[in-house]
Amino acid sequence: MKGFKFVYSISCRNCCSILSRKAMKSVLLTNTSIRLFSSNNPTPNVRALHSTYVTRSCECMISNIKCTACNSLVGYTIVSPCELCLRDKNNGHHWMFDLTAISSCIRIQGLNVLRWISDARIDEESELRIR
């Protein structure tokens, strides 16, 4: 099934709380050697911290995110994407999860593995259009 992007459920590695039921494996636009999970559908178990800052690699404004169940830092959210990142090919996701802070599993529905689609018809398991 090479070439397909699978839908993942991700959990806090520290306390096992579900952080998103609709995440995908991703890489940073500014450094493709950095792998993470991204989503635009976090659960209520994820909360952004109040402080924001500019990243080192671009002008995006970001805020760290934590698991509300155990207060572990699990990644960051893009509060305001920069012009450079908006112009580059991206998946439109604003919630980024650190691989070392989460556990993941591919979602299965019945006997089918759920995959992202890039169709304009948005449904429960479809990907947001790439900008």
TrEMBL record:
Any Pfam family matching the protein: YPEH2ZP
GO CC terms in record: cytosol
Superkingdom, taxonomy of origin: Eukaryota
Protein family per UniProt: Belongs to the FAM72 family.
Name used for this protein in its record: Protein FAM72A
Gene: FAM72A
